[in-house]
Amino acid sequence: MKAMVFQGPGRASWQDVPDPGVKDPADAVVRVGAVTICGTDLHILKGDVPEVSAGTVLGHEAVGEVVDVGSDVRTVRPGDRVLVSCICSCGRCRFCREGRYGQCRAGGGWVLGHLIDGTQAEYVRVPFADLSVHPLPSAVPDEDAVLLADIFPTAYEVGVLNGQIRPGDTVVVVGTGPIGLATIAAARLYTPARIIAVDLAQTRLEAARGMGADAVVGANDAPEALVRDLTDGLGADVAVEAVGVPESFEACTRMVRPGGRVANVGVHGKPAALHLEDLWVKDVTITTGLVDTYSTPLLLRMMAAGSLPAAAALVTHRFDLGEMEEAYDVFSRADRTGALKVVLGGARDDRLERAVAQDS
């Protein structure tokens, strides 16, 4: 089969690899129908995730059809259409019993495209299939479903729930890529008084406004002053960091009010300064976290009911699965291509503009 293989920092290619098969009784093998690229995949290519070995197939988000299962699998069978979660769960270890599936200590957690071969391929082996794939209702198309593999659970659990967003809150979201936009959409479910979106790219700020942000501001256009002005000098109740660079994290700690919450969602590859000389007296709560995906069944029901934005609001570029290298190029140059979320495979709509001309 073909797959997108990591070859070391800055290098990956779409190439032939052996077909996966069932290795353990709890495995399922899924034929990939739709897959996407995550900002975390770009962090891997930059060398920010050194645990990823050369030769690993990238990707941790997919929708597809089960083609084989191990003898212990009970919840899915060949022919079932499923969502492949970005997190695998053994269901038995201490952390899985607490619902902290991202911290699984029995070979689960974030393993796809990280510690084992991932989803950016024609087929993928998924461990602990009973808890790691979700049968899909026919009402949820592939392109919508693939958004529930990572970005919506991450935004909801690590951003909204960890940040304890409440009715009437002022929320600032720093970074309006796919995760930031999903955070804005999920935050609206809790009726905050206002959501302020911060980003460097004007196209992403426009997308944030379309997703429900009440105010948008460029990262270089004094966002801290705007937050002070809109909160009578107090600061935001919740600041969500959705970029993964030191500057954005430190900006969040400056924009949050005394007694407020900073929810870090971004994947960081470099140290960020924690200015305790300023924060110790402010009673600020800072949360971090890898998504656990315990909310995926709930989010699936919400997507089927039309309560979450569908792919049309987030997917800007569509490709065939074999165009993986082109998709990476477009997604990695989002500042020039306007890419938000890219989807490979699934239903193609050639009326929509895909990649812009190569201008690098």
TrEMBL record:
Q: What InterPro entries does the database record attribute to this sequence?
A: ADH-like_C, ADH-like_N, ADH_Zn_CS, ER, GroES-like_sf, NAD(P)-bd_dom_sf
Query: Which keywords does this chain's UniProt record carry?
Result: Metal-binding, Oxidoreductase, Zinc
Q: Which cofactor does it need?
A: Zn(2+)
- Keyword Zinc among UniProt keywords: yes
Where would I find the Enoyl reductase (ER) domain in this sequence? 10-344
Q: Which Gene3D superfamilies match?
A: Medium-chain alcohol dehydrogenases, catalytic domain, NAD(P)-binding Rossmann-like Domain
Q: Name one GO molecular function term.
A: zinc ion binding
Q: Where is this region: Disordered?
A: 1-20
SUPFAM superfamilies, per database record: GroES-like, NAD(P)-binding Rossmann-fold domains
The similarity annotation says: Belongs to the zinc-containing alcohol dehydrogenase family.
> What is this protein called in UniProt?
Alcohol dehydrogenase
Organism of derivation = Streptomyces solincola
